[in-house]
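Moderator note: this is an archived Q&A kept for reference. The question asked for a predicted structure of one protein chain; the sequence and the answer are reproduced below.
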Amino acid sequence: MQRHLTVPYVTAWSAEQDLSGELIYHSSGRIGYADETAMDRDAHGILWVRAESRPGESRPDFGEVNSLRQRRAMRRLLCQVCGGPADRNIDGVLWLLPDFREDWPGWPDAMANAEPPICARCVRLSVRLCPKLRRGAAVIRVRECPVAGVRGKLYMRDKGEIVPVKNDAFAFDDPMIRWVQAYGLVRQLRGCTLLAPGELPECDS
């Protein structure tokens, strides 16, 4: 009997190619594609990778996230596992993150986060199946989660060449964002409440 494989909505598949064009330096002081179109930038003027969305084709790459589906899930607050609406109530939207509450007092309040939220049904499934969550998971209610920036690859000019420098999160008002090729949307988590296991939302089995 073949075992059913659970593949999260935002997970990349090996058939999904990066179709980004050649990066060039614009006289306006930012990077772009040599064959750039209006579809390559968002409303903030940020350059995005040209990603395909072909879920279910070939093999899932559990270490990678599809840029288009991550962006859709973050904009619409969809569950990163099933793609349906994330759980929300009067206390906020539900998130499931690796537990780093020892990083600073009040974690994860004010954190820039590129992980989409989650629905109640998928919380326990994710903790059971995801290796990084099995090492420690935190279930969080978030009252406010404004879109605050992007996660992407920063480039610089070096001897006339456009070269990658690092992957990081960048706020919309960061002057370096002109040199970023974005691949993920970032929301800032505000008004966070950590939930105990008994406080998890009820859902159908």
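Archived answer notes: The chain has a mean pLDDT of 90.
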